[in-house]
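Researcher: Next entry: RNA polymerase sigma-70 factor (Aquibacillus halophilus).
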Amino acid sequence: MQISNDEYQQYQPLLFSLGYRLLGSITDAEDIVQETFLRAHQIEEKKLDNKKAYLCKMMTNRCLDLLKSARYNREHYIGPWNPEPLLISQFQDSEPSRAVLEKEGLSIAYLRMMEHLTPHERVVLLLKEGFDFSYSEIVNIIDKKEENCRKLFSRAKQKLSSVVGESLNYQENKSIVDSFIQAFQKQNTDELLELVSEKVTLFSDGGGKVNAALRPIQSNSNVLAFLFGVASKLPSNVYFNIENVNGQPGIVSYSDEKIHSVISFYIFNNKFKEIYITMNPDKLPSII
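Model: Predicted structure:
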């Protein structure tokens, strides 16, 4: 298969977005994109009716292999697992990647919820809802009957019903994050409790590489106590910015010109329902 530079620029963001949403890993998605293009060059052109569909099929099947493999089984991961945060601001406004990556279904909350789905449920939901593929196209991509694809889609939607209602209004959410930071700096507990759900859960991902909570922390009082404890131990040279993380406002902390941590939020009814702190250094270099 001959792929021109223009076609590479067109399809690369699509394939990366597909892989990242399926795997929650920037590194794995990038590796499989390159592998897909390399393998595509070995395919005879005359066998192809649709380059885009064929590339998506190759990408999807390789991601399915990884999802089902022992390597991707997180039973032995130390502590909670968060998807790798993606810093959208690293892409220029004019880049095709930015338009693809700013589609819905990219938030850390949504990607984490995808972990509750089987690999095939995840694929069908993403292709149908995230990339507007028809069932007839999905059938050809994953080699399943249309009836099975419809059932997979229905089950996936049912499992993800709990994430429905997530606020995706960037400016409104940024205002809430700003208010949280101001109240936190003033140590105003009353204001903080107005912004944090009573049943909030915090997921701290250190991957066993840095100190982090080994279990999810629940309830507003416990979460706030944890955050104040973490803040009191931060090095004096740590500073932070509010940046576009996975299409939503997040807090990116820096130390010695490196990213120290990324904090993302699941906001529902103007309150933090879940908080995700990613400190595993293996997940941070890719967004510097």
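Model: Note for the record: The CA atoms of residues 204 and 277 lie 5 Å apart.
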